[in-house]
């Protein structure tokens, strides 16, 4: 899952980026309206968190242009308490939800999960593969029914693999799923996460495809 945060207030941005990364999402940051439009043009985002009062281009205009160009990712507006008109304009322009600043980070994460769940069209999206299950909403992984405590990056790695269990992922593809821009990614970072994930879920669960990357074992 890859998110875009559009927010010009650096302090709010750092807080949201940190919270969403801890929750296991890759998230990028655009700090003005033009940067947001450029980023959204990539079409890689599953969810957008959008401030409205932005330098260079207003958030409502960004949203209007995004929807007109066919952009379909859910959008949560982050807005000030007194800006009722803005909120209404935002919803009319195609936002899916809004949060009033200052907002609770757990609530933001919960609303994000709800929208992402709706987007994947599954009411209760629990992935099962062999003896493993992964529940994105509850952030839970089990093996033979026993819960496994995974750290966020291990969780995100397993989620990427289990969502497309027959696909072989390259390291670059996994890096893109696990990290936002500007995050330091060492050359062996994915190997390290694979190693620690294998220790927790069983070494045989993640298969190395030599010269290509990784996939889940067949079952
Ligand atoms: Ca602002």
Automatic annotation (TrEMBL):
Gene Ontology molecular function: any one: transcription cis-regulatory region binding
InterPro entries tied to this protein: CheY-like_superfamily, OmpR/PhoB-type_DNA-bd, Sig_transdc_resp-reg_receiver, WalR-like, WH-like_DNA-bd_sf
Cellular localisation: Cytoplasm
GO biological process: regulation of DNA-templated transcription
SUPFAM superfamilies per record: CheY-like (SSF52172)
Record PTM 4-aspartylphosphate, positions in chain: 51
GO CC annotation, single: cytosol
Domain Response regulatory: 2-116
Domain OmpR/PhoB-type span(s) in chain numbering: 124-218
Highest rank taxon of the organism: Bacteria
Main location: cytoplasm
Positions of the DNA-binding region: 124-218
Keywords: Cytoplasm, DNA-binding, Phosphoprotein, Transcription, Transcription regulation, Two-component regulatory system
Protein name in the entry: Transcriptional regulatory protein QseB
Protein species of origin: Paraburkholderia ultramafica
């Amino acid at each position: 899952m890859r998110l875009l945060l559009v927010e010009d207030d650096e302090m709010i941005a750092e807080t949201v980026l940190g919270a969403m990364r801890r929750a296991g999402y890759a998230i990028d940051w655009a700090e003005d309206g033009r940067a947001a439009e450029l980023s959204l043009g990539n079409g890689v985002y599953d969810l957008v968190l959008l401030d409205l009062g932005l330098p260079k281009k207003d958030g409502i205009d960004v949203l209007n242009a995004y929807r007109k160009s066919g952009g379909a990712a859910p959008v949560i507006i982050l807005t000030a308490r007194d800006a009722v008109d803005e909120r209404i304009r935002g919803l009319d322009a195609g936002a899916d939800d809004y949060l009033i600043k200052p907002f609770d980070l757990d609530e933001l994460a919960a609303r994000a999960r709800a929208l992402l769940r709706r987007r994947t069209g599954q009411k209760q999206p629990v992935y099962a593969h062999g003896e493993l299950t992964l529940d994105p909403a509850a952030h839970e992984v089990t093996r033979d029914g026993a819960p496994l405590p995974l750290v966020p990056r291990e969780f995100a790695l397993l989620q990427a693999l289990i969502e497309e269990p027959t696909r072989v992922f390259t390291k670059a593809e996994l890096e893109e799923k696990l990290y936002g821009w500007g995050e330091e990614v060492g050359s062996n970072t994915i190997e390290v996460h694979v190693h620690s994930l294998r220790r927790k879920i069983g070494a045989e669960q993640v298969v190395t495809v030599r010269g290509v990357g990784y996939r889940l074992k067949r079952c």
